[in-house]
Write a structure and sequence with these properties.
It is built from 4 helices and 10 strands, in the order βααββββαβββαββ. The chain is an alpha+beta fold. Strand 6 and strand 7 form a beta hairpin.
Length: 202
């Protein structure tokens, strides 16, 4: 399976050696990631191997995102019934994981059928996808009262992977709207259910 390393030095509970830093550099440079055995061979401990792409899925009856583009708030993305997808890229995440994430979420059966059971996907209900970047999903609250966001990918990688999520979604699904990466966004939504599901690929 593909994995990523916790960013070197980002978590004081995880000791990262020079050897592990080299492995992290290799992983970051690889578009498809590297395997767990290869990382183990390079001396990477289990504690230094962690989760991949994170997303928060919110079933909505309607949602929109607004951004101030210089003339006051404007709607830049809007859907009716469907999924609000909050996406967080972290260090070492890859395009391969992004594609897997989108492939999974459009088929996830979290909408009610005629019997009221969660048995339908966003594709089944012909719903929309509103995709918004959300680096705060990388928050680490294990120490102190102020969350740490050092696990979040830097702006360049974050933007690349966010764009890859949107592009993949538009390839597979007909109704896709998005926010603006890095912008100060205002989200308005009606959570249907409520249904809110964290999705982390490993």
């Amino acid at each position: 399976r593909l994995v990523r390393l916790t960013a070197a030095g980002s978590d004081p509970a995880v000791k990262v050696s020079a050897k592990q830093r080299d492995a992290l550099d290799l992983l970051a440079a690889s578009p498809d990631g590297i395997t767990t055995p290869e990382l183990t061979k390079r001396g990477v401990s289990a504690d230094a191997i962690s989760r991949l792409v994170k997303a928060g899925l919110v079933a909505v009856s309607q949602a929109r995102v607004e951004v101030d583009l210089g003339q006051g708030l404007e709607v830049v993305g809007q859907i009716d019934a469907g999924l609000l997808v909050l996406v967080c890229a972290e260090h070492g995440d890859t395009t391969a994981q992004v594609h897997k994430l989108v492939d999974k979420l459009i088929k996830l059966r979290i909408f009610g059928d005629e019997a009221g059971k969660m048995n339908l996907s966003v594709q089944d209900i012909a719903g929309g996808l509103l995709i918004v970047s959300q680096f705060t999903l990388a928050a680490d609250c294990s120490a102190g009262n102020r969350p740490s966001f050092t696990a979040a990918a830097g702006p360049e990688l974050g933007r690349t992977l966010y764009d890859a999520v949107v592009d993949r979604a538009r390839t597979l699904h007909p109704i896709v709207a998005s926010g603006i990466f890095g912008a100060d966004m205002k989200l308005h939504l009606v959570n249907d259910g409520p249904v809110t599901i964290p999705l982390t690929l490993r």
